[in-house]
User: Fold this.
Amino acid sequence: MEIININKLRKYNYLVTGGTGSFGQKLVEILQKKVKPKRIVVFSRDELKQFEMKKKFNNKELRFFLGDIRDQSRIEQALDQIDVVIHAAALKQVPAAEYNPTEVIKTNINGAENLINACVKKNIKKVIALSTDKAACPINLYGATKLVSDKLFSSANNFVGKKGPVFSIVRYGNVINSRGSVIPFFLEKIKRKEKYLPLTDINMTRFFLTIEQGVNFVLNSLSRMQGGEIFVPKCPAIKITELAKILKNNVKFKVIGVRPGEKIHEVLCPKEDALNTIEFKNFYLIKPTVNFNRKKNYKLLPTREKGKFVKKDFEYASIKTIDKNSKKNIKNLLNIKS
Assistant:
């Protein structure tokens, strides 16, 4: 996936919250290699990862701010001379969220509100927040907090006026080989030559994309955004049993039961949002349900891409996306030859 409008993206100074995570590190790498902006600020609370990242990239355009999105005043300090904010900071582990709900709320909801208020105060040009498939029809606390966060970022466009910051959201599924994801978990079990791979449900399905695809999609969404919309990339889905068979032939499973808050299938565009969902060649756009100040034609984007509304019963779910090409598509993402 190529980055569109690279020249326009070069004029911005960037800040990424949660910038020491897997997404943030790949974002910094791609920004430096392809976009080459004047300034990139990494905002996170992990001093060790910041130290390691500084050694890894060793670039004078890169700045590091220790801070927490729970602290609005610190965010405001970090936003000095920033044009674009990419919000990746969150508490994301589903079981941990179930057991520590107040802490997740403080970061994922209160932190989002702090960031929005700081961006409005500092008059940032563009703000794009990373969401998750778990925010669509949430059944766990993590998903519920991200749904609230999505609503906060979308509705922020309604109180900043036509000349204020533009807020949008990107939502996608599982990132291949990201920290805590199923593929490295399975590979570690296979490496140890364990007899069985633990599986929570035999019917479980998931969407997948690479970290580079996720970063490029976010950067492309910066060129497409008009305010309030949720961008959803089209990506392959597969049964987890089939995914395991790609990693190891003749693999055996042990069903251990669904974890607290875990879904069997993922949804990225719920059918309840079908009336607001527009399909483009490589992605979907869910337009905001409430839009006071920026009444745009979401079927025609600033990038001149044209879309059309989906059918009334449309739902973009992993179980409905699997087809005869699913295994081949996942193998391509994993660079595995058939």
The domain at 6-173+209-235+269-313 is CATH 3.40.50.720 (Rossmann fold). The CA atoms of residues 80 and 89 lie 19 Å apart. The chain has one domain: 6-173+209-235+269-313. The two ends are 22 Å apart (CA to CA).
